[in-house]
Each structure stands twice: as C-alpha cells, then as structure tokens.
C-alpha cells in the first residue's frame, strides 16, 4: 500500500475515535505538538492517542506516523471548518497577518489558522500556502522568471 492510502486510513480511524470520545481538541493539540517537537514531546499523551500509537506499533505502521498525523490534522481542521495557512515574508510586516487572516476568512467562509515565518531569501513580496494551494508573489520568483525569459530570448538571438 502507498503511504498516502495508509496515512489516510489511519488518520480517518483516529479522527473517528476522537470525535466519538469528545476529546478531539486535546488530541489535536498533542498531535500538532508531536509533529513540531518530534525529538522530545515532553508530555503525557491522551489515552486515545496513546492507544492509537500502540496500535501503529503493533501493526508495524510507525514509519507512516508523520504522514498519518499530518492527515489527521487536515481532516480534523476540515471537520471543524478551519483552514491552515502559512505566510512567508522577507521581513516582518506589522498588521499584515491579521489583515490577511480577516480577508481569507471572509473569502473562504472558514476559520483561518495562520502561521507565519520570515525568509529573507524571497527578497520581498510574500508566499502564501493555503492547504494544497500555493501563491508565490515573491520578488525572488519574479526575478527568476525574468532571468529565464532573458536566457530564452538571448538563446534565440544567437
């Protein structure tokens, strides 16, 4: 079986388990934390999550755990009407995150979970990832496109 199929099946099972138990938010936070701090999570797992991890070990599926947890987070967000968004800018722009969050919530009708980071290599502009969609409005991308056009144009002249 492919990792995508395995992760989807196990993530659906975990989602069903936590929705039935009513402990979804706590398990969601722990899974999110586990993905961010894989080396040393530093907490006691919720019973549902502990039992689920034991099942993964028993079934020999621990190699898929990262994919399973990522799928679970997406599915749980979807079940709660939320979308994860990641914003990358070259420098900190005060108020941009809040304005963008409001705009996206208005346009999508979903609650936006915004994460942001700074990457000076994009030079200016921004990059925005909303679930599986990616918008690259960075200066570095535009410069790269310009460079490619110039190379193509110069090759035609030779």
Protein described:
The structure is a single chain. The protein is of the alpha+beta class and 158 residues long. It folds into 2 domains: 3-79; 82-157, 3-Layer(aba) Sandwich (Glutaredoxin), CATH 3.40.30. The chain contains 6 helices and 4 strands, in the order H-H-H-H-E-H-E-E-E-H. The chain has helices at 3-21, 24-36, 47-58, 65-79, 96-108, 139-157, and strands spanning 82-89, 111-118, 125-130, 133-138. A hairpin with a 2-residue loop joins strand 3 (125-130) and strand 4 (133-138). The chain is elongated. The N and C termini lie far apart (51 Å). The mean pLDDT is 92.
Shape: elongated
Number of helices: 6
Q: Report the count of strand segments.
A: 4
Gyration radius over CA: 20 Å
Main sheet: which strands, in order across? 2-1-3-4
Tell me the structural class.
alpha+beta
Q: What's the mean pLDDT score?
A: 92
Instruction: List segments where confidence is low: pLDDT < 50 over at least 5 consecutive residues.
Output: none
| Number of spatially distinct domains | 2
State the order of secondary-structure elements, H for helix, E for strand: HHHHEHEEEH
| Largest β sheet strand count, sense and barrel closure | 4 strands, mixed
Helix content: 55-70%
- The N- to C-terminal Cα distance equals 51 Å
- What fraction of the residues are assigned to beta strands by DSSP? 15-25%
How are the SSEs ordered, and which strands pair?
Layout: H1 3-21, H2 24-36, H3 47-58, H4 65-79, E1 82-89, H5 96-108, E2 111-118, E3 125-130, E4 133-138, H6 139-157
Parallel strand pairs: 1-2
Antiparallel strand pairs: 1-3, 3-4
Helix pairs in contact: 1-4, 2-4
